[in-house]
Design brief:
With 284 residues, the chain is α/β, with parallel strands linked by helices. 38% of the residues lie in helices and 18% in strands. The chain has a single domain, classed as Metal-dependent hydrolases (TIM Barrel, Alpha-Beta Barrel), CATH 3.20.20.140. The protein binds zinc ion (ZN) (2 copies).
Length: 284
């Protein structure tokens, strides 16, 4: 659709947040409520980036609470590289292609199977994954297991539940090579950004990921120290990557509302150019 990105020029003066979650994955609020809170928070453009799920909000213009707000289609895929978990934000200029929705669905179904395996390993009488999750329409994370443990009285808090019970033996890493995720998403026309990249991992893997076709690093995040931001920018420049940014808002911590962290569109101009140009699927 041409509508989703038409008129970027005006939007460049607007406020952006390109990373947030709804209750379709491990966020607190349903997608429509996330959108409403984004509008109330004064945001002009958002991407809802649920874990291994896309399509909970339709891309393009919405009018909410008397405000025009634009949605960029996105998702946050979980992958692994050399035994560690990394997250890949994927954005599309319009509707995501069916093949990407299929990829998300199979990843979410694998999450439901992983959840059920954890439930039976723990043997604490927890409920298995819902029908929605089993069908790949919701993405279950360790957060959900932690919450179920609290509700069943086995932990005082979600964090305690995760730390005590949701070990890697109980909940293994998601089985998607990060490099393959980059390649596949790029080939499907997605613009990819490495979410909250750790400093040492940037030093170790940025080159590998850039060669696989990564477009961006998530270098604009709340609470980043100036030297960390500078470091991410330097790595991005070195490997020809652009920057994205977002709050990674889940809605659980009280007092943290959408819009408290926001980015000027002009600071995302190289990313927006890339997004509106579409991406060639061929990597040099
Ligand atoms: Zn999350
Ligand atoms: Zn996230």
């Amino acid at each position: 659709m041409t509508g989703a990105l038409a008129g970027w020029k005006g939007v460049r003066r607007g406020w952006f947040d390109l990373h947030m979650h709804s209750s379709a994955s491990d966020g607190r609020y349903p997608p429509a409520e996330v959108l409403r809170r984004a509008a109330l928070g004064g945001l002009d453009v958002i991407a809802l980036t649920d874990h291994d799920l896309a399509g909970a909000l339709s891309p393009g213009e919405h009018r909410v609470e008397g405000r025009d707000i634009r949605v960029i289609a996105g998702a946050e895929l979980t992958g692994r590289h050399l035994g560690r978990e990394y997250h890949l934000l994927v954005y599309f200029p319009g509707e995501p292609p069916t093949a990407f929705l299929d990829l998300c669905r199979s990843q979410s179904q694998a999450r439901a199977e992983r959840y059920n395996a954890a439930v039976s390993r723990l043997d604490l009488g927890l409920e298995p994954a819902s029908a929605d999750a089993a069908a790949g329409r919701r993405a279950l994370t360790r957060h959900h297991l932690g919450r179920a443990l609290v509700q069943a009285g086995h932990a005082q808090s979600v964090t305690e539940g995760i730390q005590r019970f949701a070990t890697r033996e109980v909940v293994p890493l998601i089985d998607l090579p990060f490099v393959e995720a980059i390649r596949r998403c790029r080939a499907l026309g997605g613009v990819t950004s490495w979410a909250h990249p750790p400093r040492q991992a940037l030093l170790d893997h940025a080159q590998t990921f850039a060669r696989a076709g990564l477009h961006a690093l998530e270098g604009l995040r709340p609470g980043m120290r100036r030297q960390d931001r500078t470091f991410v920018k330097r790595v991005a420049r070195r490997f020809g990557l652009v920057l994205t940014g977002g709050s990674d808002w889940h809605g659980w911590s009280s007092g943290s509302n959408l819009g408290l962290f926001r980015i000027r569109g002009e600071d995302l101009a190289p990313f927006l150019d890339r997004l509106s140009a579409g991406c060639p699927s061929v990597v040099d």
